[in-house]
Specification:
Blueprint (H helix, E strand, L loop, with lengths): L8 H12 L6 H25 L5 H12 L5 E2 L1 H8 L3 H13 L3 E5 L7 E5 L1 H22 L6 H13 L5
Antiparallel strand pairs: 1-3, 2-3
Helix pairs in contact: 2-6, 3-6, 4-5
Length: 167
């Protein structure tokens, strides 16, 4: 198959498939194998960034949901479940663990006597902000392979492909 630019590992894989199965339309493989490889590299980079701040990926997910809520950085456990795509039992366990580390605290909901709100502590806020800054530095370095005009183009193309899963 023809390539533009230097060949990469995906090109070698696709070429091998083309050789043994020339009847297959391999275009999806040229795209999604690269997406998959990039996802593995980004997952490792994220884990590394979070580890520098003594956070697990799931901890960052919960803390960042609270941070994005804006002041006073409070959400209900149900909202956290929705935003992090875990079960309520899992979220209860996560909140317990984050509370034991001093990153969040529970408060009674002023609107519902039985309800609870989860709030970032100062330590949780500092930790998630530092991890987010580190993460963005790492991800910005990945994007240096693209020109400033190519970056928004890639974001738009990926949005188009992923939008079908957000419906």
């Amino acid at each position: 198959m023809e390539h533009t630019g230097p060949a990469d590992e995906v090109d070698r894989i696709v070429d091998a498939w083309h050789h043994v199965r020339p009847d297959l339309e391999l275009e999806p493989l040229t795209v999604f194998s690269r997406v998959s490889r990039l996802a593995r590299h980004l997952d490792l980079a994220r884990r590394t960034a979070f580890a520098r701040h003594s956070l697990e990926t799931w901890e960052f997910d919960v803390l960042s949901a609270l941070r994005r809520a804006g002041e006073p950085f409070r959400l209900s456990p149900g909202t956290l479940v929705t935003q992090t795509l875990v079960t309520s039992g899992t979220m209860t366990n996560r909140i317990d663990r984050l509370e034991s580390r001093g990153f969040v605290q529970r408060h009674r909901s002023p609107d519902d006597r039985r309800g609870v709100l989860v709030e970032l502590t100062e330590e949780g806020l500092a930790r998630v902000d530092a991890a987010m800054s580190d993460l963005l530095d790492i991800e910005a370095k990945v994007l240096t392979a693209l020109s400033p005009t190519e970056r928004p183009q890639l974001a738009a193309l990926l949005r188009t492909v992923t939008a079908q899963f957000d419906e």
